[in-house]
Structures are given as structure tokens and as C-alpha cells.
Amino acid sequence: MRHSSALWVVLGWVGFALLPWFSSAATQLSVNPPGAGLAGSALIDGLANGRWWLLPLLAPLVAGVGAVALPRHHSLHPWLLLVGGAAGLLWTVVQGFAIGLNGWNWPGLAALFGPLPQGQGAFGLGAALTMTAFLFQTTGGFAGLGCMKGDRFTAGAIGLVLLSIALFVFLPVGFVLSSAGDSGAGGFSPLALWTRLTAPDIWRLNCLYENRSCGVVWNSVFLATMTGLLTTLLGLAFALVAVRTGFRAKGLLRMLTVLPIITPPFVISLAVILLFGRTGTVTLALADWFGIPPSRWIYGLPGVLLTQTLAFTPIAFLVMIGVVQGIGPSLEEAAQTLRASLWVTFRTVTWPMMRPGVANAFLIGFIESLADFGNPLILGGNYDVLSTKIYFAVVGAQNDPGRAAALGIILLGLCLGAFWLQRRWLGTKSYATVSGKGDNGVPPALPTGVRVAAFATALPWAVFTFILYGMVLFGGFTENWGRNNSLTLRHYRNAFDLTWGEHGLIWAGRAWDSLFTTIQVAGLSAPLTAAVGLMTAYLLVRQRFAGQSAFEFFTMLSFAIPGTVIGVSYILAFNQPPVELTGTMAILILCIVFRNMPVSIRAGVAAMSQIDRSLDESSLTLGAGNLQTIRRVILPLLRPAIVASLVYSFVRAITSISAVIFLVSPEHELATAYIVGRVEQGDFGLAIAYSSALIVLMGAVIALIQLVVGERRIGRRTTDRLALQEKPV
Amino acid sequence: MSGVVTGWTGRFGAGLVALVALAASPASAQERLTVLCGVQEEWCKAIAVAFEKKSGIPVAMSRKSAGEALAQLRAEAANPKTDVWWGGPGDPHLQAAEEGLTQPQDSQYAKDLQPWALSQHRQSKGRSVGIYAGALGFVYNVEMLAKRKIEPPKCWADLLRPEFKDEVQIANPNASGTAYTALATLVQIFGEDGAFEYLKKLNDNVNQYTKSGSAPASAVSRGETLVGVIFTHDGINQKVNGFPVDVSTPCEGTGYEIGSVSIIKGTRKLDAAKAFYEFALSPEGQATGAQAKQFQVPSNKKAPTPPEAPNFEDIRFIDYNFQKYGTAEERKRLLSRWDSEIKSAGK
């Protein structure tokens, strides 16, 4: 215990006295610029350049040394750590926000203390290290006082997650939402907030009694509910077919359901238009064969619902499959031993056990649909939803950030409502079925009705997806898809050309730059998302602390707000000291990590609620710490959740567009931003070729992740029937 | 146990620190001139390459729609990271000038510029200048019109013809600058009440108010709709890409956009930004548009006009009052009237 406290105290000093405190690349100061390397440390800069406000940090640092010097069980030891760390953290943050590039940020302080001769830059390496050290000193102090049963790891983890969520979710979102009450004159006015929140075009219900469109909230809620229901249903059907039936081409089935998720958003919409649009292939065929007149039914609710269901079913499937796999068959076997029919077993045992999965899948589908931007943008027609309204409130001709913020608040409210309903439906029952007892049951066959229903839903959808993708891949090889279908490799050569120049290989294709950046960003953000998300899930399911429900809700915050708002909020929050990240790759990675974290959390929560606490307890009883328990017991059982979050965040990093469109800088252009540009230009060939290449790439990465992380091995008896189908065909 | 704990939390801390290091790393980014580009990507690339060749100053270009660019500049206002905003309709450039996001600049090429380019300079109090112009007009699907034996639209009034029922697309002026230009143009031609009278009738023929200004052009090229109201160069673009479309400009007169360039206030690379500004106005810089297959009309009289570009002699332009219709109040008033009278009347 002393050992790790001492380490953090030392690191705190290193950050303060040895490393450059300010980031040199982000900001250039005209007055008294800090020196490079050692000379730029807070200690030397504070003394030499008159940035006196850095020097009070010496007090908490000395307190840390005092704590370590005391005997381990001295009652002052944890107090010194706690108070010192907390004070250090607080002072660093307060001075960072109070003093900007040109002196005081808040006029009140300038009036109080007089003007400052110089400002300061953004936090750099030294500041980051010292703040981290302060954070772990504080949590160490808490643990020393007996919080979290004295477990330093848990306390540290909670502290770390809280601080990062505060910094990368609350701070930017707060920036945007505070403008909802902007009176126009720079102040906050409750009346302005109320007017914006109750605007009639948000809430009106005209569509019920006359031929006019309803308020945008009702449109969004209806669409999201339908999408949530459909995706959950399809996801469940796929999961049942994949896990509980002898269906042979399971691999293909999994591949097909994963396809839509690895597709850049505009491509599905484009493919749907080219199939079902007024001059689409299917539409024209129907007109020829059955005389159905071509129409534009695809633009509006039906089209958006179709593409959203295509896009989000795989996420529901990823959540459901972990849950269906995890159901202990011995319970079902017990039911059958008691002479329950297949149907009664399914209804009273299997179904209730799947409820956390169903609820989580619905919640994700609902919220994804609310936040989805690309599909309503292309196919929405005159059907307005919140996410596009918010986007155009920010970038539209009638620029009104206050209105965007108000709509954002409503969106958050909807998210909160869905979350609350989900919690109520699940109640406080236990869903633990993965216990240490070695479940040797054989899962019973599905009742005929359920089996037929699952196949009847999953198979046609799979075939539909297959056709859609066949068309997309084919489209990349045609001159001008839909008009001139002669085959060509032109688009691929255009995007991925390689030539051999004088100085070696030249990446001549137009897509290489953005592709390399995209892979780098996705590769860095995926493991981070999984780590942060699963750690949060662990805290939510396995630990009890005050304010847990509020904490859980806040982790969902960044997910419920449309990407565009997140993007703008990141610029507002991270464009100036103390945290300056715009134009870097880090801002892209952080935005993607904290935006996708909720899915990782949901997958982790669903999987973890199935693992019996007795497993943790027996591990703890045998003398293992929390950390060892996580590593040896929980993590191996969480493999499906780990795969889900790694895959999801990797893929979302590649396919997301709305959040990053404000954050990409010329240096760091992302693939989707590039593809959207091609689509706007009408250059569908290159867009489709590039998208196809991305799809293949993501497919390969998913296979790799599956291979590396591996399957969860739960003690289940295999039968001949099951063993047979494991054999390769 | 403590050793393990240190390892775990330590690794997290190390990750955090590494991330900050990553943030601080791209020092090279500081050397490049950062330009927000409001035209099609080909042109962004072409002018960046040409400028680099000429001046030796490396350029980092980022393509943004006008609304996105303006939102980004506003968010960055306290600590600008962008040096130049090049291209995109003049209207948002005027807004940026009105809000003090850009700074005044005069050019040595002023004497060679078209009067409309200089008028943009005057109205923005020197903070922005025209680099190209595009006319508002119609795009229509030639094949489908021939099949249905419908005459192509030549006038605003033609769009009200019954054979265009449910066949017209125009962007939502609340979302798109193109459609706002159309709204303001109609107000200037027919008077405000006349314009709204016209739009109410047009509403019957409109099948969709799109969100992006150029979306009707691609819808027309795929045959999803017969006619679209767009800036004609967007339509010509589809034509050059091999789609069966053609464009026309209305006989009652039409409005136009003045694609502009502005230098961002507070740029850290003022000299390089000025060099780019001059290059954008030079005949050489403006010729990059035609090289990149973009068919706007250049503002420098000495720059070659691409043969595909609409011949401005043949177009009947209105005397578009950018001063009046560019202000925030007038814009807000017209847009709310459009919202309450047109948009909420169905669709």
C-alpha cells in the first residue's frame, strides 16, 4: 500500500518539477513563453516567469511526501493523501479554467485581483501526470479510510472513470446545453429556455386529426420505438437461430448480420434508393411485372425505418447472443424434468432469463435510432426527426444554437425516460445463470412455434441483407451504377493505386491518406473503449456506491446526444486552454471512445448480470484481490462482451460521421468524411469502391478479434447432435 | 497486492499520459496554412497543389459545407485554428464578417475583378471578396421529360404547371443557403406577398424539401424527381458525370451566389494567409477551377471561363440585394414566415 502511494507521490513531483507543464504544440504564448524541457516545468516556470499561481501546488505535493513518510497505520496517513490529493486536483483545475491565454478568464477575478501580466497555455505532459497522481492519491486516501471496503483498485477505478466522464462528457455537453437558456444578450434567461422547450413545432399533434405533420418529438419517438422493437425482435430471432437450433450455415448467418454494422452509413441508404427508389431496380421490376406504379414511398418514415432496422439489428444481435449463450441449460432441463412442455419451458424459464438482453437490446435500438443522423438525412424526406433538426439548428441558414441545445435537452429527456422504463421492467430480479457450479445441462429444443417464427424472421432478412450487399459490391465494379453497368476496375484503381517510383513504393491512390488515419484512429480507440466501458460496467454491476443510478445515467449521456452536437461541443470545450486538443488525433480518439462507451457498458452489464456473484466471492474468499478476480474469473467469462465492445467501437470509429465531421482536420481526414464528399459530388463509383474495401477490412478485423479474444468456455455437456454441427462442413 | 494495483492503475495513468503526449505531438501541423474549403473536393485539392507549387507554403485543406464551416469558425472564435475560408456561398461569408470572425483585406487584383466580386468586398466592409459566381436555375431529367412529353421548365411560372405535380424538389431554406437564395430571389421578383403566394402554389408540386442544397441535382440525375431548383453548376456537374440532365435559368430573372474568400481574424499565419488570398484572386489561381472540372464563373476578368460554364450574357439576373437579404433579422423574418405559411401547411 505504501509502495503504490509513494509511486504516485513521486510521479506527482516528476510532473511538477521535471516535465514541461504546458503543451508546447497547442498554444503559443507571446508574453513570457515557458522554456523547453526541464525549464518549462511548473516549478521553474512559476519562479522564473512569474506564473505564481502554479506554486501553491507545492503544498499538496509536500502533504503527499508527509503521508508516505508516516508509518503505514498512522491515522493521519490516509487523511493527508486524501486532502492533499483533492486540494491539488482542485487547484490545478480551478487555476486552469480561471487563467487563460491572456490572463483572467472571469472578469470578476480581474476586478478583484487586478490584471495579470501574462496568461498561460494548455495543460501538457507535466500537468497531465501531476493531475493523475493527485487523483490516485485522493482515491488511495479514500480507500485508506475504509471506503470501498478499503480496496484501492476499486476506489481508483471509480475516480478515474468519474474524472474522465466529467472531462470528456460533462464539460463539453455542459458547454452546449448552457446555451439553451441563452437570452440572446449573453445572459441566461429561464423564459427563453421555456419558450424554446415548448415551441409548438416540437410538440403539436396535428397529424392525428388533420393532414399535417406532427411535432418532431412524436416523429422521433414513434420511429425510435418501431426501430427498437424491430431490431430487438430480429436480433432475438438471429440469436435463437444461431445458438439454439441446428441451423447449419451459422457462420454465414453471423457474417450477414454483422455486415450492415460495418457499412459506412451512406452506402445502405444509397443501396436502398437504388433498389426501391422511383427508378430503383426492384421498383421498375414490380412496375413491369405487376403494373405497380413507381412511387416515392421510400422517402420518409418507411425508408428510415428500413435502413435503421438494417443498421441496428446487428447490435441487438451482438447483445442478444451473449445473453442466449449464457443461459444455464440446467434450469431449462429442470423445468422439463418437471414435465413442462417445450413451450412452457420457453415461456416461463428461457424467456424470463433473456429479459436483461431484450431490455438492453431495445434500449440500444431506441437510443441509436434517436441519435441516428445519416439515414434520416438521406431518406427522411419530409419526415423530420430530432437529430436532423438539431443539426440544421447548428449549421442551417437560421442558425440558432439555443434551439439546438433545447432540442438536445428534449432528446436527453427521451433517453432518460427509456432508461427508466427499462429499469422498471427488469426490476430487481436476479438473472445470474453462469455460476461456479458447472452447468451440465443440455439446452432443450425450442418450441416449434418459436422455432418457426425465429427462422421465418431471420432467414428472409438475411437473404434481403445478402442481396443488398451483393448489389453494393457489384456496384463498385460498374462504370456508373444504375445507368451503365459495364464492368470496370477504374474506381478501385482510382482509390487504391500503387506505383513504383524512384524512391520506392508510392501510395498514389486517392483513398490511402484517409484510410491510414482511419485505421490508426479506430485501432487506438477500440481497446480504450472496451477497457473504459467494461470497467464502468464492473463498477455498476459489482460495486455499490452512493449515486450509482445517477452515475449510470450519465454514462449514457454522450450516446443520446446526436453526433453533431457532440462534435460542436468538443470544439467549444477543447479549443482553448486548459485542455486544447483541436486539430489533433487525440480529440478524434477521445470523442469516439466516449461516444461509443455506452454500448460497451451495456454489453458488459448484460453479460455481467448473468455471472453469479458467488464466483467473485469464492475467488475473494480464496484470498484473491478484486483485480485478480477480475482478471482470472470475470474477464474470461466476459469474452462475448469484450468481443462486442471491441468490434463495435472499432467499427463505429470507421463508420461514424456526424460527430467527427467537425473534428477532422486536414491532417487527420477520416474515411467517412471523404466518402460523403464523393457522394455529394455524385461520384458513387469511388464511394462504393472505397466502402466495399472498408467492409472487407472491417470483416477481417472482426475475424481477427474473435480469434484473439476467443470464445467463452462454459461447462456445457455436448451431445452428438451439437458435436456434429461444430464440424466444418 | 499493492504491486499489482500499481501495475493496473499505473497502466491506466500511463495511457492517459500517452494520450496527452499524442495530443502534443504533431508539431508539423503548425507550419501549414489551414484552409476551410467550401467547394467540391477536386477543386480544393487542385488549388492547394497549385498554391504550394507557386509559393512553397504547404496547405492543409479541409472540405466543409458552408454551415459547417461557419459553425466551426464560431466555435473556434476565441482561439482560431483556421487561417483562411475559401469558397462557398457569399452569404455565410457576410454573416462571418458581420460577427467579426474575419478581417479586412485589400487585393492587388481589385481592378481586374468583376463588379459583383467587388460588391461582396464592399458589403462585407472589406472582410471578404468574390472569387466565382453561380446562377440559380433549374435542373431536369432529359430522358424522363422526353418519355412523358413534357416541355422543360424555362420560367419560375413553369414549375406550377400541373404536369409537374409532385415532381419538383427544392431544398428547405431553413437548412440550405441555396434555398434561402431562391426564397430571397422570389421575394425580389414577385414582392414578398407575391412570392409567398407563388410558394404556396409550388408546395403542391414539391415532393420533398431536401436538406442539402445540391441534393435535388442528384435526385434528378437518378430520375427520382423530374425537376430541381439548384445552382446551375451543380447540375452541370451531374451532366459531365454522364447523367441525362440539363439545366436552364428562369425567364423572369434569377439570383446568384458569390463564392467568396475571407481571412480569419486572429490567424497566426497572416502573411501566408494573405499570399493565399492573393493567389485565389489571381488568374492563375482561378484557372484551377476549370482544371478541376468545376464550372462556376471566375471573378477575375483575366481568368479563362470554362466553356461548360453558363454564359452569363444569356442569363437574366436580378439586382440581388445582398445587403438587405444577408442581414440576420431579414433572414430570420423570412424564414419564420416560410416555416409558418409553407412548411407547416403539410408535407
Description:
The complex is a heterodimer of chains A (729) and B (347). In chain A, the strands form 3 sheets. Chain A has a two-stranded antiparallel sheet. Chain A has a two-stranded antiparallel ribbon with strand order 3-4. In chain A, strands 5-6 form a two-stranded antiparallel sheet. Residues 718-729 of chain A have low confidence and may be disordered. The radius of gyration of chain A is 28 Å and the shape is globular. Among the domains of chain A are: 2-145, no CATH class; 203-481, MetI-like (MetI-like fold, Orthogonal Bundle), CATH 1.10.3720.10. Chain A is mainly alpha-helical. Chain A has helices at residues 2-17, 42-48, 58-69, 76-98, 107-113, 125-144, 152-177, 190-197, 200-203, 216-244, 250-258, 265-276, 281-290, 301-326, 329-337, 342-371, 374-379, 386-395, 401-426, 448-475, 490-496, 512-542, 548-560, 563-574, 585-608, 613-621, 626-637, 639-655, 671-681, 684-709, 720-726, and strands at 99-100, 103-104, 478-480, 484-487, 498-501, 504-507. The two termini of chain A are 55 Å apart. Chain B is an alpha/beta fold and 347 residues long. Chain B has 2 domains: 29-133 and 256-310, 3-Layer(aba) Sandwich (D-Maltodextrin-Binding Protein, domain 2); 135-255 and 328-345, 3-Layer(aba) Sandwich (D-Maltodextrin-Binding Protein, domain 2), CATH 3.40.190. Chain B is 45% helix and 16% strand. Chain B is built from 14 helices and 11 strands. Chain B has helices at 2-24, 41-55, 66-76, 90-98, 115-123, 142-147, 177-190, 192-205, 215-221, 232-240, 270-281, 283-291, 322-325, 328-341; strands spanning 33-37, 59-63, 84-86, 102-103, 129-141, 168-171, 206-210, 227-231, 245-248, 256-264, 297-298. In chain B, strands 1, 2, 3, 4, 5, 6, 7, 8, 9, 10 and 11 form an 11-stranded mixed beta sheet that branches. Chain B is globular and about 60 Å long. The model of chain B is unreliable at 1-13 and 19-30 (pLDDT under 50). Classes of the chains: A mainly alpha (729), B alpha/beta (347). Chains A and B meet through α1, α6, α7, α18 and α24 of A and α1, β2, α3, α7 and β7 of B.
